[in-house]
Amino acid sequence: MPKRFDEADLSAIRQVPIASRASKVRVEDIVDPRTLRGSGHELLAAALPDMLAADALKKTAAALRSARDAKREIIWLIGAHVVKVGLSGYISALMDAGYITCISSTGSAVIHDLELSFFGKTSEDVAAELPAGRFGMAQETSEHFNAAVRHGDKLGIGLGGGFGDYINSRKAPHARFSIFSAAIAAELPATVHVALGTDITHQHGDFPAEETARLSMRDFRILTARVQNVFAGGVVVLLGSAVVLPEVFLKATSVAYNLGSAPRGVFAVAFDMMPQYRVRENVLSRPFRGASESHMITGHHEIMLPLLYLLLRD
Known about the structure:
By secondary structure, the chain is of the alpha/beta class. The chain has helices at residues 40-47, 52-69, 80-84, 88-96, 107-119, 126-129, 139-155, 159-169, 179-186, 209-230, 244-258, 277-285, 301-312; strands at 74-78, 102-106, 190-193, 235-239, 266-272, 292-298.
């Protein structure tokens, strides 16, 4: 005979009236699409329920609009995937509209931007090219990258600014799709933060490592100056970088604290296809603890950024 074990006596529980219970959802929160009216960003805002990620997205749009109108710092940190999935036009449009005052990216992002500007295509098939010994070996990409680095070094500017000016000065046939060219036109800083050994151009024997590092370090100082500004009630948007940019941003905030900055009223939001540890800790939690509102919004960039843009579009 199997042993019998003690069971909880559920007849002894104390029930409570539902009126005294805290509830997170009410009928007022339910969106009935049959009642929606209007158009544009107002229609989209009304269509999204004030719940969870949808509420965070609307709060992000409101924070961006408020920061723009108050002329506060708005820093965007974007990974390469943002460029690869066809969102350069959205980033450029947000610059034009004043929703970005500083944009920072990785070495791979600027490579995709460069290829799109000169060749009208990017994002090679790694699975096919790698075993053939061809992955990252495009001659023209390496040549343009190296020339852009030396162009920026000659001008005494950062890596991002150097790439934008190089694309413009060489009259790249598709320059209108370049984020870095758009940053030049908008007269705002575009910084590039390179981790040596992580990008395809580093594989080539003539890669100008010293110049690249020098310009990337200059960009770090430019970004850090902007982080000091964002402490005064600005907005930080991270879009699709899980490691490099969260680490760079954390060090920039460390310098800002060391130089006497104190954060107040900062709004920080991160978009990615899955929650990331460094994103949560280095962008949303540690830098502005107790002095900010922060949100993590999970979803594909090619869906979430157009939605955010439509909420902002006047």
